[in-house]
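Re: folding output
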Amino acid sequence: MKRTIVTGALGFIGSELVTRLLSEGTEVYAVVRPSAQLTRTLPVSDSLHIIPCDMSRYSALPEMIPTRDIDVFYHFAWEGSAGPLRSDEHVQLLNIQYTVDAVRAASQLGCRRFCGAGSIMEHEANLYLPLPTSVPSGAYKYSVAKLTAHYMAKITAAETGIDFIWGEISNAFGVGEISQRFVLSTIRNMLTKKTGDFTEGRQLYDFLYVSDMAKAFLQIGERGQSGWSYFLGSGQPLPLREYITRMRDTLAPDFVLRFGAIPYAGAELPAAVFDTSPLVRDTGFVPEVSFEEGIRRTAAWIKMNSL
């Protein structure tokens, strides 16, 4: 690829993708919120152009970016992907509109392809919410917003004649993440405590180190088939308890695991959801970092930064 646009370019995965694109000689227009704190340092490069633009002003991007010869528009920007804002319907509804605005801006900029960042939580919403016995938490508003943004963006891409690819993020983790999500909170507990409470951990999960997630997005943006939604994972889904046990064995062999101490009421996703064969078939994707190596790197980073 010669030239790309990346929204959410200072985010966890977005910044990793920008770094990877630049390393491969791609010119990058990195779209960031004007008020964003530079919590992550992007590489210094003549091929990197910082475009301050709030999500509410994506319709103005064609005026801010001078070129019209762009290969892929990557859209990662999303407010409330973790924490209490997952349950804020106003925030999540705006995210849907901003995603549609991003597709329209991509089309007006002459981008050949639009590649959006989805979530495995889309499948959980589809499976759990229709059940008559479901009692969903407010966090499902995020899941539904991702699912709705996916389909609204796909429709808009068809209307505007731009190729559309959607990447479903499994569970990305690694150096640079600052949220309270599962992997980081579990690593912190294993480094500082003697025991940990978990669900039974029978539900399937798949984890992918952040550099591999960026690699997967680069490849689907470049080689993915238009109209496809690709699950981005390691290709090795396992019961969550097995991943937790591997984390314990890697970091703190004496840490006591209390499986079943916490009830689990969410959906148990079928193995078919975790199928990476379309990703491998169309892009040749192969992960570079093993789960254990990723855990070691992340733990070392947490210790170094006293997180």
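--- second protein (sequence, then structure) ---
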Amino acid sequence: MTLTPPTAGMAADPYPYYADLRALGPLFRDDESGLLIATTAGAVREVLASGAQTRPSDAPVPPAIVDTPAGRIFGRLIRMTDGLVQREVKAAVATALGRVTDEALGAEARQEAARLLAAGGIGPTALGFQVPVRVMAGALGFGGDSRGELRDLIADFVQCISPLSGPDAIEAAIAAAAELESRVAGLLGDGKTGLACYLRAALERPQAAYSGHVLANAVGLLSQTYDATGALVGVALVTMARYPDSLDAFRAAPVEYLREVARFDAPIQNTRRFFHGPDRLLGTDVKAGDAVLLLLASANRDPEVNPDPDAFDPARANLMSYTFSMGTHRCPGEEIALHLAAGTLRALLDSGFSPVSIDLAGLRYQTSANARIPMLA
């Protein structure tokens, strides 16, 4: 495939290309896409610390889902918003997540994966996109019988977030969003314990508007678990296939192993920011309306922050990773994602699956705007 900055993450090995982009400068304008490209760790930090926003000023919600259930959820997700409300909701999400233990969720993921594998008919890719969502649904307070259905609804809903989705996918996302709204509202109405109710308690405010943020970000916990954690499971298996001698390191310290995987072959390769007014960054004039593509995967391989960055080293000291972002938009569920992926992978290895069976020569990656999802059996 012809590599471009926005699509490089779908290539078999985009990292030499990212090195070439870093040589062009920390921040440059790509003539083909019109995007500013942040290639280095320093540039990514600079953009994230600037006034750049997560959405364009004229499209806080994608036009195709405005005034729909999907649009209502999208417009309140902390990953898609900025400002005071975003910060308050994010703090509440962090407080709610603090009520569960990462280790317990990891153990539950291992048990859930073992159960699905024992039932048969599921491959490693499907396992990575099933288990974390099912476990997170349980943590939110949903009963076991509904967790498979919730996973399917989330698989439809996340299509409204991707700019690559066509009309049929958007229609399915809108329908899924309406059902998710109903199910989460019912869960909150039951008053049971779980992350959804913990989030509601943490966001107790006189403003009625906050009730919508509780519902939306409960859905957001499921959607981020689906794509980012599923992709992490996939790239970890590919890394194990490439470095079979590293399996002992995974078994000894699975979460630390996955931290290095997330740096070495980032499951989320890039993200975007938008300037609502003029600025100047790293000697480059930025206009209102400019979009910046932050190459998180390239920043992870920047030798200025990670010496010998192209080496996979599960024991790497002073690891610097931008995969989960940083600053006000750093993912509050990073530790949960690592533990969910670790539990899923441990069960898969326990079942007798051998990563060396992966056909690396024929490996392909799913079409995605930013996620790196290996197409495994």
